[in-house]
Amino acid sequence: MVGSGDRRSARVAAMTREGPLVAPAFPVVLAGPSGSGKTTVARRLALDGKRFRFSVSATTREPRADEEDGKDYWFVERSAFVAMREQNELLEWAEVHGEMYGTPRSQVESARRDGVHLLLDIDVQGARSVRRLEPDVVTIFLLPPAGERMVARLEGRGSEGEAERRRRMQTAERELRAVGEFDFVVVNDDLDVAVESALGIVRSEELRIDRMGERVSHRVQCIEEEIRRTLGLDGEDATARSRRR
Q1: Number of domains the chain contains
Q2: Same domain for 147 and 192?
Q3: pLDDT category, 237, cuts 50, 70, 90?
């Protein structure tokens, strides 16, 4: 028959083998000017479904030929978007080039519950809003390797007219000046390297003690209890331990 002491020892031993010690899930913002490749990097990270989830934004703009409703964006009427905003259903929203974009608040809440990092592929305005409302967010600025490369990416879209391309380039120039507001910067010269850099940032943030809160003290307490049990000091009270120290 297993005694209560044996059961407690087994419980403590199990608690010290809980696996990796990481912080609770937090949102991750990937922002940068058009042509920086932030969406591609976010999509690659989201392939790791155990760690990440891609946030699908709502927008009032028309879908491009290769875009799918509910996968790339939620394409909604302007009246529906305004209703979402007025009912406080959006974590952030911004009007860009005359169209409205926003992140449904429910996505952040469900990602936290499921223990995965929500990847927000948003613009600089949206990143500012998220930082105000979600203080534990990690913000990463995707920087193109050179101006010519970014211009080539913008011109290569082929889905917009000259006026729209010029407006996007002017916006990109303004957004580049906001790089100093972000926690990290990743130069997207090589996609694989950029993805690994962003993943390394998140892994490091998962191990920050100030993000873990009671998880660290709980783990340390479990280890201390196991040591005391091994030394036969299981019943020693706090005063006795203090004198011994």
Answers
A1: 2
A2: yes
A3: low
